[in-house]
Amino acid sequence: MGKKWRWGVILDAGSSGTRLHIYRWEDAERARHGASKEELANLPKIMTKEKWTEKIRPGIATFGDKSTEVGPEYLKPLIDHALDYIPEDKMKDTPIFLMATAGMRLLPQIQQSALTREICFYLRRTTQFSLPDCNAHIQVIKGETEGLYGWIAANYLLGGFDYPDLHKHGKGHHTYGFLDMGGASAQIAFAPNSTEAEKHADDLKLLRLRTIDGTPTEYKVFTTTWLGFGVNQARESYVEKLQESYPTTDVDELPDPCLPKALRTTLDGTIVQEPPQKEGAVTLIGTGAFDECLRKTYPLLGKDKPCQDNPCLLNGQHVPAIDFDVNHFVGVSEYWHTTHGVFGGKGDKAYDFATYQKRVKDFCSQDWDKIQSKLDARKKNDAKYAQEACFKASWLINVLHDGIGVPRIGIEKGTAPGLNVSKGAIESAKDKGFLDPFQAVDDINGMEVSWTLGKMVLYAAGQIPPKSGDDRLPVGFGSNSVAAAAGVTPPDFQFAGSTWKPVGHSGGNGTASGGGDDDDDWGSHAEDLLDKAKERSTYGMFGFILILLCMLYFFRKKDRRTRLYGRMHTFIRRSRRSGGGGGGGGSGGSNRKGSGSGSGLAVLTSKLFGRPSGVAYERVMEEGFDVNQFELGDVDSDDNEYSDSSDGNGGASGSRFGRSSGLATPKINMERFNDGLLLVPPSSGGGSALDRSGLVVRTESRERLVPSSLSMLNAGRRSRASSPTRLKSPLIGSFQEE
């Protein structure tokens, strides 16, 4: 690839699996060259492709007690996938990160340290990726950090950073809030309105980025996490509370309103067909009562926990007041899967509480057998998603509306009227649902909304040189202290981990000697063009096969092939006559040029259709050849193909080269008569001439068709002309066939 590209690799080690992400962006110095004023004010343009992403299961935390196996037994397929796409000459300049989230946070600290240490050693031993600091590149990140990275990714893709004027939500606000929910934890990140930001300044994070022209940009963001509030952990807590709700331990069957009607499972969610015979085993029996499910999951929010720093949302944790007039949230991961999986309607864009809750009630009240009959047996996970859907929906509704306080669109107050946004921006946002208080998304403009993208945006921004060499404001994030507001880097500041020193930059001005901007540009687009070609290759192959079948069908009969051949032969002969000119020494070169393409087409047609009987060709030697130079005559053989060439002067100095040997092959021209062969060597003039034996020879500067009466004399005989030694003497009577 060209030198203009930078690459980055990041592994998201979650609770249920690890996903590899590869990102690419343009080198900052190259991006500045020829950029418009608007482009210079933007962040680096990060790109990725679906094929660059790969996921494996289970979660990396399963190797907590066998850390030495995590590299070769677990990570190797992901690393091999990355090596397939990162250019070899870019390896040493490509950073690699593995950042573990909630699944690893649940492990003891000693197991976390053993895993991260072994992962770093493995990557350093087996790859050449840039990994200068194990602690910075391989780590278990806090939930707050994960939420902040997600906030960066969402606003980067929505345009809140690059085009603030198009995203004015009122009160000087132009960014979007971010909600994420996985299997073990949930995060929230948003920029409070100006009043709340001033009131809770010490609770915010100071985030600093840098645009292409080196200008620093700052944002003050609140972010927090709720460990144990992911859907899987919440389900475990729910089942425990369900057991505790029955006063006796002798119960072996528990009604579960959060399961579809008549579905039977074990406590861990395994479907059972018959009541278990094992003593003490407990079976959950679905009742499909969704309203009751909502009531039983509500206590898990921890709204009754004491709040030490008002206001609080979930589990007694402090969160600044959310102004939903200006704070519009996008939700990813489980927010998307739970609203658009089993219950998603065709064409759904915005989240509507009333519509969503009705769909959930209708689904969960059905008998399990009816639900199961509609599942796709080829998709193994469909049954699992269906059995968990009712609980997940109730948990999401409680977290969104009773926990975080998102207005119930369709029932409660929605988007504030009179938003200060341009007409074009508001129409675009309405189409995506981003002017609502909440909207679940999976991707924006074709790119997945993942917190890993936020980390890579931060890293790429750190590679941009600051304006005038002023590095007092580094890229990264830390506490929003008074010192930070004054331009001093806080002590807990987490740097982007990148520098703005050029890596492999060719310099120069795009000339051939400077390393080649042209080469870089070609390399940067070659893969994209190849991908587009591959996308069309399947259709092209089907089209080719269809055309081939049609041709085979049409030419399956010999008479059709013969007719087509005759027409092509007539066309070739007329083309030669019209393009070859008259005979004679001066026009010999021209004639040879004209006949070259024609004879090539004749060979092709003879291969496809075979030569019809009664037609034979004789090549007569042209004027200007030395009488002592001979060339073997034309043969009807696929092994004797050659092409004609000329010096371009139209004279007799053109030469003939054989394809098989690459050398000119001497040729003698003979005509067969009843009394034997007539040798026809060339002479220096036109008309006729006598050779030493007194034979009459004719010379012509064009090819002519041998009369059918003469060609019949040659019937059944084929000359083998693979070697000039076959012709022992120009006076030999005939060619012998084997």
What does this molecule look like?
The chain is of the alpha+beta class and 738 residues long. Among the domains are: 1-141, Nucleotidyltransferase, domain 5; 558-726, no CATH class. 34% of the residues lie in helices and 15% in strands. It contains 21 helices and 26 strands. It has an 8-stranded mixed β-sheet with strand order 14-13-6-7-9-8-17-18. The protein has a 5-stranded mixed β-sheet with strand order 3-2-1-4-5. The two termini are 58 Å apart. Residues 414-427, 503-525, 580-599 and 601-738 have low confidence and may be disordered.
- Counting DSSP H or I runs of 4 or more residues, the number of helices is 21
| Uncertain residue ranges | 414-427, 503-525, 580-599, 601-738
Whole-number average pLDDT?
A: 76
- Taken from the alpha-carbon principal axes, the silhouette is globular
Largest sheet: 8 strands, mixed
* Strand fraction: 15-25%
How many angstroms separate the termini?
58 Å
Report the C-alpha radius of gyration, rounded.
Answer: 40 Å
Strand order in space, largest sheet: 14-13-6-7-9-8-17-18
Query: Total strand count, please?
Result: 26
Which structural class matches the secondary elements?
Answer: alpha+beta
Q: Could you estimate the helical fraction of the residues in percent?
A: 25-40%
Features:
34% helix; 738 residues; 5-stranded mixed beta sheet; single chain; 21 helices
